[in-house]
């Protein structure tokens, strides 16, 4: 799988999963545009990557704002000439009692997590459909699309919506050689991995908690031109956690 000279946009790229995804594409030779609302961390990530790779840019982007999304796509096309791959990773949590969630909080998480995926995908596809080889879009959902804990309605609704939106877009964009897939990460540790307990790891069939590069490698698989037969899927990457039956002893 070669990504040499491929143009990749990663939203929410300043830290966590997005940062890990961006780094993996850089290692594979892609030209990468980092997009994030956190300018300070975005610039730090940019500076780190530029120590070894020049073909990377950062643009402060609030995916909740449609104008920022249009600017991101225009910036990328003007800088690198096209868009080959879009990773819709930006998002935020909303974990609060359903009795206390305000309309403003609900709309904030819906617009940030879900509406942005539609708008980013649509704007990127306008560019991708002009490419001879089309393009690839990956939407980062979550295992919370299929399982929940209390007080997670807003987050779960957006992640479930992303899964449904993914196969709908895959159908709509199929005539333009654009694949659209989702990844549902499970427990991906973006903090201090060494502080996890043995119990944390044992909850997984893989015997370990996930890392950002586990999701990054899944992105590479789904966006490789060799894998254009794969579209409309939701790839669960969770170390088997959602398949493991756990009983109290």
From TrEMBL:
Any GO BP? bile acid metabolic process
What Pfam families does the record tag this protein with?
adh_short_C2
Q: Keywords assigned by UniProt?
A: Oxidoreductase
**GO MF, any single term:** oxidoreductase activity
Residue ranges annotated as transmembrane are none
Q: Which SUPFAM superfamilies match?
A: NAD(P)-binding Rossmann-fold domains
Identify its protein family: Belongs to the short-chain dehydrogenases/reductases (SDR) family.
**NCBIfam families referenced in this protein's UniProt entry, alphabetically:** PRK07231.1
Q: What is this protein called?
A: NAD(P)-dependent dehydrogenase (Short-subunit alcohol dehydrogenase family)
